[in-house]
Amino acid sequence: MSCLNTDLSLLRFISAELTRGYFLEHNEAKYTERRERVYTCMRIPKELEKLMFFGIFLCLDAFLYVFTLLPLRVFLAMFRFITLPCYGLRDRRLLQPAQVCDMLKGVILVICYFMMHYVDYSMMYHLIRGQSVIKLYIIYNMLEVADRLISSFGQDILDALYWTATEPKERKRAHIGVIPHFIMAVLYVFLHAILIMVQATTLNVAFNSHNKSLLTIMMSNNFVEIKGSVFKKFEKNNLFQMSNSDIKERFTNYVLLLIVCLRNMEQFSWNPDHFWVLFPDVCMVVASEIAVDIVKHAFITKFNDITADVYSEYRASLAFDLVSSRQKNAYTDYSDSVSRRMGFIPLPLAVLLIRVVTSSIKVQGVLAYVCVVLFYCGLISLKVLNSIVLLGKSCQYVKEAKMEEKLFNPVPTATPGKPAGKQQGTFKSTQDENGSTSVTNQPVHQKENMPSLLITSNSDQFLTTPDGEEKDISQDSSELKHRSAKKDLLEIDRFTICGNRID
To answer: What residues does each domain of the chain span?
Structure first.
């Protein structure tokens, strides 16, 4: 009888499992949120690639500037310096600060170019080719880390040189002088160019390996980056840093692939058939880079509840840098602004590319020199066209983000010991003083709405602290969240993430 009851119970259980129902609308908010997450992941590739496309052309504009407009600006600065006695010393400055910086960049490029002639590319290639696959894989990873570290310090060296050479003379000097700063800048550009050359050589060895095992291992290394990033907590500012780093990395890889193709085409006497042999490997490198970036950003935004619209804010921030650098009273050059924002320093990469091109392409005869002049004119045309299009798109992005007033009211930089003065965590419009709705212009209203804006989760209420201290902790956490929200994207650069100074 007990067995019969067991069978009947089992039958009832199976029947209940087959016929039971449930209603998803009872938890409508939860499922709506999950559906929005799916839509966000589907929008990430489009929004991310729009940001990448815009950022890569910003890097291209700064890179082409070194080859096109910088030599002309150096020539104009030298012409002014030579003809200065004809005009008299009516001006207190022999050269304008921008002209001094241009001449310093030009001299650094020339010195480092001649220093690169003492580096034998062929010997380096055969030295790297003789190493084992595992050793080359370790070397390539070390080079990537070294490139990021030396880039973070390199722009500081260049900025220190520019400021030391152009600061007002009546101020009390507290530095070591222009010449030591200049020597440090030359050493930095030279060492960074050698580092990038070793990267390009390692990639070239991977392309020319017979079984392509090294290239496969190097490309699979990009997917290891997903593991190291997607499971970490990211705020909008941190994600902005990562996006800028990805833009710089992708553009640098394109230049490295160009160098690899030039070296290989030279070895095969510029046979066009060999290019189609390299083309599948080039496509594999580019495709793996794009796939890794999409997957990484998709899951970072999913795990941190960040919408896809944040990439339009990032794009507007980059556009703001371009528009502000075109103003008459701009405080920095655009190429330096890109360097600080993305970590992309064009001088070492330009030195290496000039060295590779001049060693790979032989210019002989009048016709060859005419082709060089025409090619240079084409580069200038490309630079001007790219700058015009970028400036137009940047003005459009700035207007869409309602950031025009920031062009005339620069974002104040935070002094040591004092927080930033404005609430600009997002690119929402802030009206002027006539009928302002800005948080900064109405501090009382901001304080009243503080509890409604910063709602703590339920888990924050179960701290293992006495009851008397629970209120103070919640207030401190609210103040911390409010203080971190004040950090504007325009106030940070790429290297603040290295010093953990974002909050």
So the answer is: 28-408
C-alpha–C-alpha distance, residues 54 and 66, integer Å: 19
| Residues 6+ away with beta carbon under 8 Å from 261 | 275, 278, 282
Other CB atoms closer than 10 Å to residue 351's CB: what's the count?
26
d(CA 48, CA 53): 8
Whole-angstrom distance, CA of residue 40 vs CA of residue 294: 12
User: What local confidence, expressed as pLDDT, does residue 171 receive?
Assistant: 61
pLDDT digits (tens, 9 = 90+) for 318-356: 998 888 887 766 666 666 777 778 888 899 999 999 999
Distances (CA, A) of 151 to 145, 148, 239: 10, 5, 19
Query: 125 and 201 in contact (C-beta within 8 Å)?
Result: yes
Residue from 219, 197, 222, 196 nearest 209 by CA? 219
pLDDT of the residue at 185: 94
* 204 Cβ contact partners less than 8 Å away, ≥ 6 residues apart: 125, 259, 260, 263, 264
Cα separations (Å) of 6 from 2, 12, 17, 159? 6, 10, 16, 82
* CA 116/CA 198 separation, integer angstroms: 13
pLDDT less than 70: residues of the chain? 1-8, 85-93, 169-175, 211, 214, 328-335, 408-503
Q: What pTM was estimated for this model as a whole? A: 0.76
- DSSP letter (8 states) at residue 442: -
Q: State the Cα–Cα distance between residues 448 and 441, nearest whole angstrom.
A: 14
Q: Which helix (H) or strand (E) holds 47?
A: helix 28-67
* End-to-end alpha carbon distance in the chain: 71
Q: Tokens 């207030």 map to which residue? A: 475
Q: Please give the pLDDT value at position 464.
A: 34
Residue 88: per-residue pLDDT: 59
| Alpha-carbon gap, residue 161 to 102, rounded angstroms | 12
> Considering only CA atoms, which of 275, 239, 236 is closest in space to residue 258?
275
Q: What is the pLDDT of residue 437?
A: 34
Alpha-carbon span 113 to 108, nearest angstrom: 8
Cβ neighbour number for residue 354 with a 10 Å cutoff: 17
Q: Provide the pLDDT for residue 208.
A: 82
- For position 148, what pLDDT does the model report? 86
